[in-house]
Predict the structure.
Amino acid sequence: MTAAAGRAEPGVLARVGGVPVVHLLGGPYVAQGPAVREVSDCAGRVLAYVSLHGGRTPRRRVAALLWPDVPEDRAAGNLRSVLWRLRAAGVEALTADKATVRLCPGVGTDVEHIHRLAERLSAGRPAAEDLTVSWWHPEVVDLLPGWDEEWIVVERERLRQHALHALEILSARLTAVGRFGEAIEAALLAVDVEPLRETARRRLVEAHLAEGNVVEARREVLTFGSLLRRELGLAPSRGLLHLVPSGTR
């Protein structure tokens, strides 16, 4: 396990009091106090699986999933070795007993932070610090890049959908309070993640119109229409087209 040099971090979690934070966005790696440490492939997969499954998982399940091609006792030994190496490196992120592997008390994950932020926005109960785009980083939808295991693919899509909905809601809320520049930025981030997503494009058009930039809004509708026809042979919905005054289309 080595210190990560020059890594661009998502920044969605502050490091507080030296408590480890498991980073899976663009990771895996572990931030602990001022130190940022890479983890081995095996340790990363154990950390990821436990983190993405409620922070607590049966030992036998982790071992069987990550080492499916070896005997059960060998897989169990591999898991013990990974846990020992993490502790030896001073990373107190996981703890285990005879039956389970779990995150240590107080250990956070960047994925959990994004899900909670999205849930607060969706429920209409955001904290003041949620109403900003500063928590966003392109890696927020780059969950464990290069990993193609089924359990990762499912969680990656779940996170992607949560992030997209959060950005759209954030853009609408910022538009409503006149913070148009930030509203446009939040919508653009969602469009960048999924260019064919009409709801993201709608938030962007609405922010431009609220700021009085009809030409910008018209350009977005035309751009989206061209992209949609080229990629899918479809046209934008009437609802989106009707956002722009007919004289400007």
